Structure formats: C-alpha cells, structure tokens
Amino acid sequence: MAVVEELLRSEADGAISFGNHKLAHKAKVEDFKHAGDLLKVKTYNEITKLEKNGMFLYESVPGTSVLQFTENERGVAFVVEGDEDAQITIGLTDDTEYEVFVDGNSIGTMKTGFGGKLSLSVELENAGEVSVKVEQV
User: Fold this and answer.
1) Among 27, 58, 85, 133, which residue carries the largest CB count within 10 Å?
2) Domain limits for position 57
3) What is the pTM (predicted TM-score) of this model?
4) At 114, which CATH number?
C-alpha cells in the first residue's frame, strides 16, 4: 500500500498524489502550490477531501489515498486505495455527461447536476489500488 506520507505532493509528470487513509486523526495541508493553483487537502481514515483554489474537487468516505490524480477539460483520472469500499464524489462541470471507468471497465455514464458533482462507489476492501477514469462523453 502506498499512502501519501506528506499528505499532498506534486509528481514529476504533473499529476498530484494526496491523502492518507491510515491516519487515525485529521491532518491537513493548505496553500500547496501546484501548476499555478492553490490546493488544500484534509485527510484521515474517515474522510479525504481536496480543494483547488477554494473549490471542491474530490471527497471520499471513508478516507482514501489517491495517486497520480490528473485533470483536464474532459475529466479526471487517478488511482485510489483504501481499507474499505469508498463513496467518492468528484467536482466536475455542471450538467455534463461522463463515462466512468473503474479498473479499465466502463461502469456506465453519469450526468452531473447544477453543482457539477459526480458520485461513485469503488470496491477497495482487499483490492489494493484501483484505477478510476471519468471522461466527458
């Protein structure tokens, strides 16, 4: 398991990794500069939350560790791990349809509402790392 010990880090390829689902107590990193943006992460075993420039970007219940998180105008991609199955919510574009892939398999399309949030469940218990890709249709 590859928890993010520093809670939030920039990767050499421009991605970020964040969260630590093994922490028993809340921890956070604020005002982390990455690619011209300010990031904030709050994480522990019950929740992991990421904000970019004060706006919601990612949340999982229970907490997760997220590796290689990338985003572009069409969606997001990342690898997630945790000790239990997780409910993940991602901040995307309002009123837009996305296809969701978990471990390379499409689980269907979902449409965001007015707030631009998309929620999905990921089976993590005994799974190790699971890849997630959300791409605009």
Assistant:
1) 58
2) 8-136
3) 0.95
4) 2.60.40
